[in-house]
Amino acid sequence: MSTPQPLPRCAAVVVNYGSSALLATNLAAVSAAAPALDVVVVDNFTTAGELAAVRELCAARGWTLVPSPTNLGFGAGVNLGARTALAAGAEQLLLLNPDARLDADALGRLQRVVADDPLVMAAPVVRAADGRVWSDGTDLYLDRGGMRATRKRPTDPEPRVEMWLSGACLLLARGLWEAVGGFDDRYFLYWEDVDLSRRVREAGGRLVVVREAGAVHDEGGTQGEGGQRAKSATYYRYNIRNRLLFAGQHLDAADRRRWVATALPEAWAVVLRGGRRQLLTSTAPWTAMVRGTVEGLALLHRAARTAAAPADGPVRVLQSFPDPRPTTNPYIWMLKDSLEAHPDVELTTFSWRRALTGDHDVFHAHWPEILVDGRTPARKALRQLLFVLVLLRSRLRGTAVVRTVHNLELPSGISRREVALLRWFQRRTTLLIRINTSTELSDRPHETVVHGHYRDWFASYPREEQVPGRLAYFGLIRRYKAVDTLLTAFRATTDPALSLFVGGRPSTPELRAELTALAAPDPRVSTHLEFLTDAELVAAASAAQLVVLPYREMHNSGGVLAALSLDRPVLVPDNEVNTQLAAEVGPGWIHTYAGALTPEDLTTTLERLAAGTTGRPDLSARDWSTAAELHLRAYRRALALVRGTGT
After folding, report:
1. Which of 75, 92, 384, 587 could be bridged to 192 by S-S, CB 3.0 to 4.6 A?
2. Origin, by domain of life (predicted)?
3. Does the model's pTM come out above 0.70?
4. Where are the beta strands (DSSP E) in 482-536?
């Protein structure tokens, strides 16, 4: 009798959205039953408290946490987790909802089926807690777009159907996942498993329900699929919308017409999954039905009008910055390096010649005000003319325009012509990238790509030994950064063992003179009011016990991340951005104050740090390879918007 071959290494990928309690119940049971199973949890951000609970759970169980600063949706979240799992060596992926669980025997049976045939995507028979079958394959009826359990398929006459498997619990091999490219994240939520099942078959794969394997679905744990309980407006909207998106992507003209004709009856059927009583007590189901239908019809018709789709190959991106120099912001260097390393991005740095003659899909701007400025009036006028020509050319060629929102407002002190050009550029922008989730962009298309860390950038520079009681500020000094307030507050402290270092170039001679006068009377203060090299910055930050950044307005601060990248705690204003960052990086690293900075804020924070900090701040969400992947997602979405195939 032959000995069975060992099963391939398998990783469970679970996307969490406010469901830490379900993880503690269901995923913990799966992990305990199958200790060899790797577990990757992607947390789509809901609240700081939820993220802290998930982080604690992952640390206790030995799971890998991939925190996302925003809600990527289910499909994009799974894709992010799958990349992490495959990079760690997984050969099989178990895609599992937080409200589903299976035992070791069921997992082994699924693994064995896929190991025997790597072109199989397998699912167990999923049952509700009361034992009734919740999912064992579902048929999509191609004549009108309705659905029914496969086990209820009529045989006479044979309908035009194709089966799909629920994403609540799926297992497939690495090769098949990579062949189909994972989930299509344009669905955001619902129908992404229908789409995946279609693409698995198109890639030569098979869908198999393993009858000997069972899983349990905690019905209603997230968006419950059965019963007659009212469901969320999100559930209704995306089920209705994505039915029509699927039709626009996969069906021929005749089938699309039939699905349009049945759009309202099918939307009504979706809403009735939550019962009739809800329709008398809330307008939300009605609004979701209308919104989902209108959005879905628009998506279907856009797909029908054009055969163009977002490119599956490399995206050609022209950045708005030229080849970096030694004094260039490290953010630009690290973004350039990470995008150049991504196989699906072809990056070009900026010159006017490249912008006017090059062949690129996306123009990505960071500080567009630089492009309409110049050292002399003649040079400024020429650059503004070229700027107009670049925008006109991008419109004629269908180039997507993407802008990273580093600043919320237009620069002050610029001419009316510059204001007009920059506002035109804002209207011409296809998609915005925000650096944190607190940036309000109303209804404009946008993606979130948080500012990456500086750990690799600073790794080659020697660090200084920490000086007890040393405070430090570093970075470009502008009025709004309130370095004068820091100097005033520090001078009011009385402990002779304290010291303060201020390093950075003031923006005006007047500000330099003012800061010099404030620092001079106190021998505990040392200043270097010039541009700091990276080596000088590392030396200043590493010598400090606490980095103080007393900005009057703090939105996106590279200084905070620079300090955290060097494992130094920071004292910053109390606002939503810093509260979220504190939850992300873990306790002990972000300290805040309310109102104007006071001497007591400085001394009490140092007292809290007297015991020292342990470990390192958690900057895993700010890895530059993740940032490159999220930038690519933004570029592809912008292209879909320009080509009329996305939202």
Report:
1. 75
2. Bacteria
3. no
4. 499-503, 525-528
The strand order across the sheet containing 161-164 reads: 147-149, 138-141, 161-164
Predicted confidence at residue 555, as pLDDT, reads 66
What CATH architecture is 10-217?
A: Alpha-Beta Complex (3.90)
What is the enclosing helix (H) or strand (E) of 315? strand 315-319
What's the Cα-to-Cα distance from 584 to each of 19, 42, 89, 164, 587, rounded to whole Å? Answer: 17, 13, 26, 37, 9
SS3 8: coil
List strand residue ranges (DSSP E) for 31-91, in order.
38-44, 64-68
Token pair in block for residue 294: 């209108």
pLDDT at 558: 82
pLDDT score of 149 more than 90: yes
DSSP structure string for 335-352: HHHHHHHSTTEEEE---H
Mean pLDDT of the chain: 90
- Cα–Cα distance for residue pair 250/305, rounded to 1 Å: 14
Question: What is the model's pLDDT at position 69?
Answer: 82
State which amino acid sits at residue 617: P
Read off the tokens for 335.
Answer: 């973004």
Q: 291: which residues sit within 8 A by CB, 6+ positions away?
A: 237, 241
For residue 536, the tally of other CB atoms under 10 A from its CB is: 15
Question: CB-based contacts of 292: which residues, under 8 Å, 6+ apart?
Answer: 236, 237, 238, 239, 240, 241, 267, 270
Count the neighbouring beta carbons within 10 Å of the beta carbon of residue 49. Answer: 10
260 Cβ neighbours under 8 A, 6+ residues apart: 244, 247, 297, 300
Write b or e for each residue in 306-341: b if 16 or more Cβ atoms lie within 10 A of its Cβ, otherwise e: eeeebeeeebbbbbbbeebeeeeebbbebbbebbee
Tell me the H-state helices in 373-500. Answer: 377-397, 416-428, 455-458, 483-491
pLDDT-above-90 percentage for the chain: 71
Structure tokens at 574: 């109390």
Residue whose entry in the numeric block shows the structure tokens 């589903």: 100
Q: Which two tokens stand for residue 35?
A: 């200790």
Give the closest residue to 124 by CA, choosing from 174, 166, 75, 78.
Answer: 166
Q: Specify the fold of 457-622.
A: Rossmann fold (3.40.50)
What are the pLDDT digits (tens) for 525-560? Answer: 999 999 999 999 999 999 999 999 998 877 667 889
Answer yes or no: same fold for 315-452+625-643 and 457-622: yes
Question: Which neighbouring-strand residues pair with 93?
Answer: 11, 172
DSSP 62: T
Instruction: Give burial (CB, 10 Å; 0-12/13-18/19+) of 644.
Output: middle
pLDDT recorded at residue 577: 84
Pairwise CA distance, residues 559 & 315, whole Å: 31
CATH architecture of 315-452+625-643: 3-Layer(aba) Sandwich (3.40)
73: left (phi over 0), alpha (psi -120 to 50) or beta: left
Segment holding 124, helix H or strand E: strand 120-128
Domain boundaries, the chain: 10-217, 233-305, 315-452+625-643, 457-622
Which of 443, 457, 464, 472 lies closest to 569 in space, CA to CA? 472
Q: Is the Cβ–Cβ distance between 102 and 78 less than 8 Å?
A: no
Summarize the confidence of residues 222-237 as an average pLDDT: 68
> And the tokens for 18?
């406010």
The residue count of the chain comes to 647
Q: Decide if 191 contacts 246 (C-beta within 8 A).
A: yes
Q: By C-alpha distance, which of 398, 220, 412, 426 is closest to 311?
A: 398
